[in-house]
Amino acid sequence: MTAYEITPEEQNELGKALYDALNPLASAIRSRRSGLPADRMWEADPVEVTLSVLAAWKVMDAEVKRLTAHAAATAGSYGASYEQMGAAWGITRQGARKKWPDAVSRTAHATAGRRTLALFGGTAELLQA
Question: For residues 116 and 125, is the Cβ–Cβ distance under 8 A?
Answer without folding.
Answer: yes
